[in-house]
Amino acid sequence: MIKYSVIVPIYNEEEVIETCYEKLKEVMEKTEENYEIIFINDGSIDKSVEIITNICERDETVALISFSRNFGHQNALTAGMEHAIGMAVIAIDSDLQDPPHIILDMIKKWKEGYHVVYGKRQKRRGESFFKKISAYLYYRILRALTTVEIPVDVADFRLIDRRICNILNNQISEKNRYIRGLVAFCGFKQTFVEYERDERLAGETKYPLKKMIKFAVDGITGFSYKPLKIATKIGFFISLFSFTYLCYVIYEALFLQRPVVGWASTISIILFFQGIVLIVLGIIGEYIGRIFEEIKGRPIYLIEKSINIKSGDVTKYEFDK
User: Fold this and answer.
1) Among 24-38, 116-130, 298-312, which range has the highest average pLDDT?
2) Helices (H), 224-262
3) How far is CA 51 from each of CA 6, 77, 201, 320, rounded to the nearest angstrom?
4) Beta bridge partners of 39
5) What is the pTM of this model?
6) Are 161 and 199 in contact (CB under 8 A)?
7) Distance CA 206, CA 216 (A)
């Protein structure tokens, strides 16, 4: 029986893979229990696959899942969870910003009876002020908007119990997967361990501003209808304001005998409210887009090849930790 599965999404990380493997190997050996390390290649175009393949050939505890193209970080995590057979599944990025030795603290919490153990960041070294403040605001806005209690200052570095993993694999079928929200949605006993996030070991971040915005939108639209409710309230306010202003214009023309002036201001008001209308339509479009993605029924990833992937019965979750 495999006790621990460590899943590591990879996208053009040839500079850090060997070091990541060595650090994870060192940590997992300290558990003195069976484990597997699964690298998920998310369509890398560098030498990542070649490096991982060489590691798999000399170490049978390491496995590779290689996608046919880039399908995204969340889908790579999903593939890892669907192929992991450990009683506890640990997700960590390869850039070593999340220190692997924290995994031992997570395992300790898991053995105390917790089903989910998050890595909660206290500090973020090596990141710009904009990155830090935007991340701070994002997590708190997300928490305020969503109906699910999603923890703040946590990413995808976490340990989940086999029971949670089975629920995510077998009972939650949505295509636009926001793993952080889905894990929080499952409930059960959850806790966290705090750590200081390090600078990236090498290479560049794979989450530029454009991807971060898309990720934020996925999180909000996937777990909250509040943006639609806000859009409704904005529409009601605009209608009320417009009707009030119309009454004022009629009153001024009929009773005060004043000519209607202010062409420039009128056009400005029209353009402003038209902008609001387009924003509201954009919000509605995001939700319609999610519906469109769900009903197509396409697979969220395609595997080109795999190495050392193990199989086993993981439907039972009652076991001695």
Assistant:
1) 24-38
2) 226-255
3) 18, 20, 17, 36
4) 8, 64
5) 0.71
6) no
7) 15
